[in-house]
From TrEMBL, chains A, B:
Residues 105-222 form the Endonuclease NucS C-terminal domain. It is an enzyme of class 3 (hydrolase). It comes from Catenulispora pinistramenti. InterPro entries: Endonuclease_NucS, NucS_C, NucS_N, NucS_N_sf, tRNA_endonuc-like_dom_sf. This is Endonuclease NucS. It is found in: Cytoplasm. Belongs to the NucS endonuclease family. Coiled coil: none annotated. Cleaves both 3' and 5' ssDNA extremities of branched DNA structures. Residues 2-98 form the Endonuclease NucS N-terminal PH-like domain. Keywords: Cytoplasm, DNA-binding, Endonuclease, Hydrolase, Nuclease.
Length: 225, 225
DNA sequence: ATCTCCATGTCGTGC
DNA sequence: GCACGACGTGGAGAT
């Protein structure tokens, strides 16, 4: 990884056009060739960048001490950086990162809820996770205590688009006489009021999931029986 | 801005839990207090981060030469970084950035299309941009050559959620007897097949916009009259 | 503070 | 390769 701190101007032409007036900034060149330009605020987002795969060409220093970096990719996007007054230019070998281990995302919720489908209703049974349909997989397909099918859409945060998604699935599933009528359950750790209202309007039930409880139930050390 | 290159392990507990095993990484502390941790690949995304506003507390060096950074925010999210073998620790004053100037985003498309609404149909007239409704503004409200209202949703890339959005607007607008019937046009630089299919199913027309042409038409230097 | 929607979204995954 | 959905989405603007 190469870290440069310098005054620079930047022009990007690609999916849009953009320009950065001259200012002192951080330039980061990574081992995969990618380049990003950071200001002194916002942890996450660089002001400008080029994602890999891409190629950086560095010009000779001109009579005013300027250097031009031209970063291009296959799609014809182009990032041109003009540097001057370089304060820092450091290269460090970082090696391959072992990567981030995550816990608590939607996949976990789905796993836990599938194992404990009775959380949603007594006597309910799991048909399968990722139940395939023509327009994509339903997170969980289950049957209620009467044997009727229930399509469950799981979100970490339940918002309107999740309800729309489930609505599309239900519309399709209910066209299948072997399945219809299919009930819908919108399950999330948190459900926004607007989503709850829309769900009610569509005849979709809502269920708020408690990740800690689901995980606790799943944790053998916490089981009483 | 403070740049540190060091071996570190990272634990995050907040919206999810995550862990980074020990490896050499770049740590960036910005003037707004935000912290991000970068590996040597992917230009855009840090492995881990804490967005401002947040507070960084740095421990004393322990007997093994380790330092612990604890970054917390108001919401109770917590990022704990254990550093050792610090290779670089550099601070640079960057100042406030003048910011990015953009050209070619949805706002521009909307502006240009509003000026040239006849692109969508001969004899069409603009009612207004950002036409207000109870559930949010419609990008463009127009009238066709028969005087019928047309709601136009503009996207850079037309996907399903854009069609859903327009559908919600149309549902609402068509309840107003002073407006109904309201036609819908889904306009984008590129429309995904699934979105096109859904739009057709909902009786919504699609229009592919050419940004260069719209801009060219708007550019006084290119006008012939 | 909350809600909404855009984004050069990025990133993984399944086809 | 394309398409779809999740993301600690982030970030900006309006209510």
């Amino acid at each position: 990884m190469r870290i440069v701190i310098a005054h620079c101007t930047v022009d990007y032409a690609g999916r849009l056009s953009s320009h950065l007036p001259e200012a002192k900034r951080l330039l980061m060149v990574k081992a995969d060739g990618s380049v990003s330009i950071h200001a002194d605020d916002r942890a996450y987002k660089p002001l400008n960048w080029m994602s890999p795969p891409c190629v950086l060409k560095e010009s000779e220093r001109d009579e005013d001490g300027r250097v031009i970096w031209t970063v291009t990719n296959k799609a014809g996007e182009r990032l041109v950086i003009t540097l001057q007054d370089v304060e820092l230019d450091a290269s460090h070998e970082l090696g391959v990162d072992p990567g981030l281990q995550k816990d608590g995302v939607e996949a976990h919720l789905q796993e836990l809820l599938a194992e404990q489908i009775e959380t949603l209703g007594s006597g309910w049974t799991l048909v399968r996770r990722e139940y395939p349909t023509a327009i994509g997989p339903v997170d969980i397909m289950a049957r209620d205590s009467d044997g009727a099918h229930v399509a469950v859409e799981i979100k970490r945060r339940g918002e309107i688009d999740g309800v729309e998604q489930l609505t599309r699935y239900l519309e399709l599933l209910n066209r299948d006489p072997l399945l219809a009528p299919v009930r819908g359950v919108f399950a999330a750790q948190e459900i926004k009021p607007q989503a709850r209202t829309l769900a009610a309007d569509r005849g979709i039930e809502c269920a708020v999931l408690d990740y800690e409880v689901l995980r606790g139930m799943d944790d053998p050390s916490s089981r009483l029986f």
